[in-house]
Specification:
Elements lengths: L35 H9 L4 H5 L9 E2 L2 E2 L13 H13 L10 H20 L8 E4 L2 H16 L5 E5 L8 H10 L2 E5 L9 H7 L4 E7 L11 H10 L3 E5 L11 H4 L3 E5 L10 E5 L1 H6 L10 E4 L4 E3 L13 H17 L1 H7 L6 E3 L4 H7 L4 E3 L8 H19 L3
Parallel strand pairs: 4-5, 4-6, 6-7, 7-8
Antiparallel strand pairs: 1-2, 3-9, 8-9, 10-11, 12-13
C-alpha cells in the first residue's frame, strides 16, 4: 500500500470559482496567436487542446530512458512554448539594452517592449492600470516586498495576520519575520473534515484585531479553491487588507483582480509558460503609493542628494536596478500565447493529475495531514489523456512493486 499520496484534481470539487469572461483589451491582443479554428475542432471532439498545443513545446518532443517524456510537474514549473523562446531570443539578438535610461534606438525599443509587457500583465488579470503591476523576481519576492514595505510600516504589537495552514512557505516565512520585528501575531486556520482550509473557521478568526489576511487562491497541494471574493468582503468589513497567492490560479483560470477586490495579488511567470526569474505583484494604487521602497538604488529614485533621496512613483519605486528585461518580455509573450487560447478554455479543458514527491514547500500542511511527504500530479493544458493514462499505469506499477514487499 502506498501511503501519503495526495492526488489533486484540477476540476476543484470543493469550491467552484466564479469566473468572469467580460475582460477584453483589443489594443493588446494584436500579437495573440489565434486558435479559433482548431478550438472548434476541440469542441467537436476531433482533437484535444493537449494534442493541439503540445507541438508548440520543444522540450516535450524527447525521450527519457527510451520512453516519450510525459511531464506532470506543472504545479512546480510549466514548460515554455516556442513563442516565448523566440521572444527571449529576439530581445537579446535585436534590441538588448537597458530600459528607461537611454535615448538611443535600442534602449527606446527595449523600454517600449518592457512596458508593453507590464500592460499585458495588467490586462491579463484586469488591473485598472498598469502602474498597479510591479515586476519582481518571483511571487516569493513579491510577498517579501509587501511584508517589508507595507508590513513593517503598518503592523504593531497585537495586530493579527490570518493565514491558513495550507499556505506555501513563501507566504508564511516572510510574515513570521515581520511578526518578530513588529510584535504582530500570526493566526492559522486549520483544515475541515474534507481536509481543505476551513473557510468558516477563517471567517470566525477575522476580527477587529486583524490587519492582514494572507491566503492562496488555489492550493498547490490540495487543489482546492478558496472563495476569495467572500474572504475579501469579510476582511474589508473590519478594515483588514488581503494578500492573495495566485501562483496556482493565474495559469489555469480567469483571474480578475477588480472582481476579487484583493488589495495585493502575486504570481510567478515560470508557472504560466513564461521564463524563470520574473514575477509580479499587483497592488492597489493607493496602497503602493503609500508604501516606502523595498530596495534602494538606481531607477527607484526621483532625486538623490548627499543627505537624502526622494523616490519615484510606483511601480518604479519598487524596481531598483536593472530589471529582468528579457524575462519580462518573455512573460508578455507567454500571456499572448495563453490569451490566444483563452483562459476559460484552458480551465474547462484541464482535467487530471501530475507527479512530484516531497512536501511541496508546505510542511505545516503535511504535518496536519499526518504525512511527511506526498506525491503530487499536476497537469497543464498541453497534457493529453494519454499522459494521464501513462501516469496511471506507472502508479499502478509502483503500488504493485511496494505491495510485493508485504
Amino acid at each position: 500500500m502506498m501511503e501519503g499520496v495526495v492526488v489533486s484534481l484540477p476540476s476543484f470539487p470543493f469550491l467552484k470559482p466564479t469566473i468572469s469572461t467580460s475582460r477584453s483589451s483589443p489594443t493588446l491582443r494584436l500579437g495573440f496567436r489565434r486558435f479559433s479554428a482548431s478550438l472548434s475542432a476541440v469542441k467537436g471532439g476531433s482533437v484535444s487542446l493537449g494534442h493541439l498545443t503540445q507541438p508548440d513545446f520543444p522540450i516535450l518532443h524527447q525521450k527519457v530512458n527510451g520512453s516519450k517524456l510525459v511531464y506532470l510537474d506543472n504545479a512546480a514549473t510549466s514548460q515554455k512554448p516556442t513563442a516565448v523562446l523566440k521572444a527571449l531570443n529576439t530581445y537579446y539578438e535585436a534590441y538588448n539594452s537597458n530600459v528607461h535610461r537611454g535615448i538611443h534606438y535600442l534602449s527606446a525599443k527595449a523600454t517600449d517592449e518592457y512596458e508593453l509587457a507590464r500592460k499585458k500583465v495588467a490586462a491579463f488579470i484586469n488591473a485598472s492600470d498598469s502602474t498597479e503591476i510591479v515586476f519582481t523576481r518571483n511571487a516569493t519576492e513579491s510577498i517579501n516586498l509587501v511584508a517589508y514595505s507595507w508590513g513593517l510600516s503598518n503592523l504593531k504589537p497585537g495586530d493579527e495576520i490570518v493565514l491558513t495552514i495550507a499556505e506555501h512557505h513563501s507566504a508564511i516565512v516572510p510574515w513570521q519575520i515581520v511578526a518578530q520585528k513588529t510584535g504582530a501575531v500570526l493566526k492559522f486556520v486549520s483544515l475541515d473534515e474534507n481536509e481543505v482550509a476551513d473557510v468558516e473557521k477563517l471567517r470566525e478568526m477575522i476580527s477587529t484585531r486583524t490587519e492582514l489576511v494572507v491566503v492562496h487562491h488555489v492550493s498547490n497541494v490540495l487543489g482546492s479553491v478558496l472563495p476569495i471574493e467572500d474572504i475579501v468582503i469579510w476582511a474589508h468589513e473590519v478594515g483588514a487588507k488581503v494578500l492573495v497567492d495566485a501562483c496556482q490560479s493565474v495559469p489555469h483560470m480567469v483571474v480578475d483582480v477588480q472582481g476579487l477586490d484583493a488589495d495585493f495579488l502575486v504570481a510567478s511567470s515560470h508557472k504560466m509558460c513564461g521564463p524563470t526569474g520574473i514575477g509580479f505583484l499587483f497592488g492597489k494604487s493607493n496602497l503602493l503609493s503609500a508604501m516606502p521602497p523595498f530596495l534602494g538604488g538606481g531607477e527607484m529614485i526621483s532625486d538623490v542628494f548627499l543627505d537624502h533621496s526622494t523616490y519615484a512613483e510606483p511601480p518604479s519605486r519598487f524596481e531598483a536596478g536593472t530589471p529582468a528585461i528579457g524575462e519580462a518580455i518573455g512573460l508578455g509573450a507567454a500571456i499572448d500565447y495563453l490569451s490566444g487560447i483563452g483562459m476559460q478554455k484552458i480551465h474547462d479543458y484541464e482535467h487530471g493529475v501530475a507527479i512530484r514527491s516531497g512536501h511541496h514547500c508546505a510542511q505545516p500542511l503535511h504535518r496536519q495531514l499526518g504525512v511527511s511527504a506526498s506525491a503530487r500530479a499536476s497537469l497543464h493544458f498541453y497534457n493529453t489523456e494519454e499522459d494521464v493514462d501513462d501516469f496511471i499505469r506507472s502508479l499502478n506499477d509502483t503500488v504493485s512493486f511496494f505491495n510485493s514487499f508485504k
